[in-house]
Amino acid sequence: MATSFGGSNIDPTAWEDKKCKGESRFPAQVRIRVRKLCKALEEDAFRPVLHHYDGPKFRLELSVPETMALLDLCEQEGM
C-alpha cells in the first residue's frame, strides 16, 4: 500500500545505478507498506481483473476495485 506521494529518488539505493552511485535507475518512486507477501500470480489469473486499453496492454495504476480483486486472488490461491 502506498504510504507517500510519488517523488524522485525517494530511496536512491532502490535499483541503484552501478555507474552513478547514490542514484536509482528508476527514480520515479513511491514509499509502500507491505500488506502481505504473496507468491507471484500467473498472468492468466490476474489479466481479467485489470483495465486493458490496447489489446494486452494495461494501465500500471490500479483502481481500488482492481486492488481489492487482486488481493482476493491472492487469498484464493492460498498465498
Automatic annotation (TrEMBL):
A Pfam entry, by short name: Dev_Cell_Death
InterPro entries: Dev_and_cell_death_domain (IPR013989), NRP-like (IPR044832)
Domain DCD as annotated: residue spans: 1-76
Biological process per Gene Ontology, one example term: response to endoplasmic reticulum stress
Protein name: DCD domain-containing protein
Species per Swiss-Prot/TrEMBL record: Acorus calamus
